[in-house]
Design goal:
- This protein is an alpha+beta fold.
- The chain contains 17 helices and 15 strands.
- The protein has a seven-stranded mixed β-sheet, with helices on both faces. The chain has a five-stranded mixed beta barrel with strand order 2-3-4-6-5. Strands 1-15 form a two-stranded parallel ribbon.
- Strand 10 and strand 11 form a beta hairpin.
- Helix 7 packs antiparallel against helix 15.
- It is elongated.
- The two termini are about 45 Å apart.
- This is Flagellar hook-length control protein FliK.
Length: about 525
């Protein structure tokens, strides 16, 4: 199964969860809406249906009952919503193509295939939109590749719903955040390209080192764990007497090296054990038996002993990459702090992109910038419910993958998700288990966990570990009501989208606000 199947469902769900005008109509000045006049009142007032909502509006000109008009929102007063009639709709209202053509014609915009598809989607979802937004949207569609039209329209409608500025970069960022190319692959590819650049500038050298740090961060953590175990072999439960002797020999050899050399030789040895002999690793420092012992330690080493270490790693990766740069910048500006110390990967990517660099390198840099910018744009707020998707690149010694996390839950007064009521979906690809998705639903600290994976023995492994998992969560005051292992269905894209999009049926935290807010 390709990565795009489940991920596309997660991303489409995030976009579909944005409050829809069908449920919560909020009309703003200059927005254009299609309304059906249900009833006329004195003093040029009328009952008008916009989508599924009926409202009383004050009009500037006379209109007829039981007719459809394009209106512009002029504002609201004590007497009600003020609408300006723009044009009477001619022909059948159920003919979407005809309706879309009339709207485009009214604004003197060409009725191209892409523009008509965009207007049709706006009308299907009953999204209030301004003339300026329509013009900006159609301009963006003209510069994007034709094969991206459907995805681009989805991204533009998302931006309109969330009231984002309609710029080419915003739309490209939303699109880039849904790329089927793994983030780890983009980072590695860019690092490789940078390493081939001769006579690098100072900032290019900094960027190269940052990319190396991102790709080696988890490997360095493993090496650090191995060093600790070599210094305290008693912590290893399965060690034999002969292995204990080999560890003594290993430590004797390592004692002759400085810290950097120790880390490098252990890193090279682990790579060699993994079969990556193409990396020019020279294994002559250790004997074959010593290398086997180090390999066994690496295989059984646990990188994390508690949840705080995991959180610390994820936060470090987010900070290094710059996934929360905008939030940090806002906080620093609000408190008057110095902003010159914001030197994340994303900030340096932006700086290098402004330099004179080879076209291929610039394209890779710009694509990575767009992708990192796109992640925060997928955050949704619907009443007290908050939802966002995060992708964290994991560079393990024998495998690289993106960890995609979708968080949904009730927002507390401090802006954080309430840990008592939330849903978290994890998705990643592993070397032996392949695609795996873990869906954790938590209500009042009672958890139900569903693991989706096609490996035939995973269910047995989970059953063996379920008691330990329940006990560990119990120490954190969580009760596990069920742990299920299910295979992905034969047509995962269709099924996962159906399940994920169901919202109120499958997930108890969807939120319906007021019917009308003006």
């Amino acid at each position: 199964m390709e990565q795009t199947t489940v991920l596309s469902a997660l991303f489409k769900q995030a976009m579909s969860q944005i409050p829809n005008a069908e449920n919560q109509l909020t009309l703003k000045e200059n927005q254009v809406v299609l309304g059906n006049v249900l009833k006329l009142f004195p003093n040029q007032k009328a009952l008008i249906q916009v989508g599924q909502t009926s409202l009383i509006a004050q009009l500037e000109t006379a209109i007829e009952a039981n007719e459809n008009y394009w209106f512009t929102v002029k504002g609201s007063t004590d007497t009600g919503l003020q609408l300006k009639m723009m044009k009477k709709l001619h022909g059948e209202t159920n003919n979407e193509m005809n309706t879309a053509k009339q709207l485009l014609s009214m604004f003197q915009i060409r009725a191209t295939k892409q523009n008509l598809a965009f207007i049709n989607q706006v009308m299907d979802e009953n999204v209030p939109i301004t003339k300026k937004q329509i013009q900006a949207s159609t301009d963006i569609l003209t510069v994007l590749p034709k094969d991206m039209t459907d995805d681009a329209i989805d991204a533009i409608v998302t931006a309109v719903k969330k009231d984002y500025p309609l710029t080419e970069n915003i739309i490209k960022s939303i699109l880039a955040s849904q790329s089927s190319k793994p983030l780890v692959e983009q980072i590695e590819s860019l690092l490789s390209e940078l390493q081939h650049v001769k006579n690098k500038t100072a900032i290019q050298n900094i960027l190269t080192n940052q990319l190396k740090n991102v790709t080696q961060q988890q490997s360095e953590l493993l090496v650090k764990t191995i060093i600790e175990l070599l210094n305290n072999p008693i912590e290893m439960k399965t060690i034999t007497t002969s292995e204990q002797q080999l560890i003594t020999q290993i430590n004797t050899k390592l004692s002759k090296l400085d810290n950097n050399q120790v880390q490098q030789v252990l890193f090279d040895t682990i790579q060699f054990n993994l079969g990556e002999k193409h990396k020019n690793v020279t294994p002559h420092f250790f004997t074959f038996e010593e290398m086997e012992t180090i390999g066994k330690i690496a295989t059984n080493a646990s990188l994390f002993t508690n949840k705080d270490e995991v959180i610390q790693l994820f936060k470090a990766i987010e900070a290094n990459i710059g996934l929360k740069d905008e939030l940090l910048l806002w906080k620093k500006l609000s408190t008057g702090e110095n902003i010159d110390d914001l030197h994340s990967l994303k900030n340096n990517l932006i700086t290098v992109s402004g330099d004179t660099v080879p076209p291929l390198l610039k394209e890779q840099i710009d694509q990575l910038i767009l992708r990192l910018n796109g992640q925060p744009l997928l955050q949704n707020e619907n009443g007290p419910i908050q939802q966002f998707i995060t992708q964290i690149p994991l560079f393990m010694l024998n495998h690289q993958t993106d960890l995609t996390i979708q968080w949904t839950g009730k927002k507390r007064a401090d802006g954080k998700i309430d840990p008592d009521y939330c849903r978290i979906v994890f998705y990643l690809q592993l070397p032996k288990l392949n695609d795996i998705m873990i869906d954790v639903q938590n209500q009042n600290r009672i958890m139900s966990i569903t693991i989706k994976n096609d490996h035939p023995t995973l269910s047995t492994l989970v059953n063996r570990a379920s008691t330990d998992l329940k006990e560990a969560l119990k120490t954190m005051n969580y009760h596990v009501s069920s742990i299920q292992v299910k295979p992905f269905v034969e047509t995962p894209m269709i099924d996962e989208q159906r399940v994920l999009k169901s919202g109120t049926k499958e997930y108890p935290f969807s939120y319906m606000g007021v019917d009308l807010k003006i």
